[in-house]
């Protein structure tokens, strides 16, 4: 679905197709609302805050809808006392999925480790528990997220130099050609279209309408959009 159709559908649902009053919708407002709607929808589906109460990969529909955001990168680590710390998470990082690493010691070849994401508050307890602490022989350890970096605990038993981080990235923001972003003052030189399937774009349109209707105090349109975006999810 191209940006012209998106704009047309949003204005149609707001009853602004021929509006010449002070509530006329400008292109930058549509872009801002649509992009905000993408983030809102993605976070809600990942967390399971929807009518189906289905979170990340809890159904075939969630897998199918969100797989486009799954990506992986090679991430480097540096050794610290009792752990290895990664470089900063990518700028487009949205939500954790998993990390795959190979660990090595002075006497053993590399071994693939299972890395569990743990809470920072439980680090001391996990390091103390012989069944949960890092163990090279079992091929298991845990990690935490802190200061936008990944800390993988090693108990100084092994070393990790790099790994593959799999995560949900931010959705690609749309841009409308010749539209000036009022926040950055940058002019969009080309159209950047939404990367999702048309059926999901329809939900993003309802999200954008919901946001814009709230800004304009058009409560009937806002209520209709709120109903549509979840009933068709």
Task: Please give a structural write-up.
With 233 residues, this protein is an alpha+beta fold. The chain has 6 helices and 7 strands; from the N terminus they run αααββββαβββαα. A 7-stranded mixed beta barrel has the order 1-2-6-5-4-3-7. Helix 5 (198-216) runs antiparallel to helix 6. The longest helix has 21 residues, at 27-47. The two termini are 18 Å apart.
Write the layout of secondary structure elements.
Elements: H1 3-13, H2 27-47, H3 60-66, E1 70-80, E2 83-86, E3 93-103, E4 111-117, H4 123-128, E5 140-146, E6 149-153, E7 162-169, H5 198-216, H6 219-231
Helix pairs in contact: 1-5, 2-5, 5-6
Task: Write a concise synopsis of the structure shown.
The chain is α+β, with helices and mostly antiparallel strands and 233 residues long.
User: What structural class do helix, strand and pairing data support?
Assistant: alpha+beta
The total strand number stands at 7
Q: Strand content of the residues, in percent?
A: 15-25%
**How would you describe the shape?**
elongated
């Amino acid at each position: 679905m191209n940006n012209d159709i998106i704009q047309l559908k949003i204005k149609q649902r707001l009853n602004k197709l021929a509006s010449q009053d002070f509530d006329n919708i400008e292109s930058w407002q549509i872009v801002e609302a649509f992009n905000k709607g993408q983030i809102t929808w993605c976070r809600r589906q990942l967390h399971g805050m929807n009518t189906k109460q289905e979170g990340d990969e809890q159904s075939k529909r969630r897998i199918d809808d969100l797989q486009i955001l799954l990506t992986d990168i090679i991430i480097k680590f540096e050794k610290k006392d009792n752990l290895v710390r990664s470089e900063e998470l990518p700028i487009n990082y949205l939500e954790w999925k998993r990390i795959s690493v190979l660990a090595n010691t002075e006497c053993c070849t590399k071994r693939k480790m299972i890395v569990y994401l743990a809470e920072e508050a439980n680090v001391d307890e996990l390091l103390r528990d012989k069944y949960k602490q890092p163990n090279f022989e079992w091929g298991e350890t845990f990690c935490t997220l802190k200061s936008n970096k990944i800390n993988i605990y090693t108990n100084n038993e092994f070393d990790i130099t790099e790994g593959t981080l799999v995560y949900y990235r931010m959705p690609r923001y749309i841009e409308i050609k010749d539209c000036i972003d009022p926040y950055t003052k940058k002019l969009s030189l080309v159209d950047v279209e939404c990367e999702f399937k048309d059926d999901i774009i329809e939900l993003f349109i309802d999200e954008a309408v919901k946001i814009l209707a709230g800004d304009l105090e058009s409560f009937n349109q806002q209520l209709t959009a709120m109903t549509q975006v979840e009933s068709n999810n």
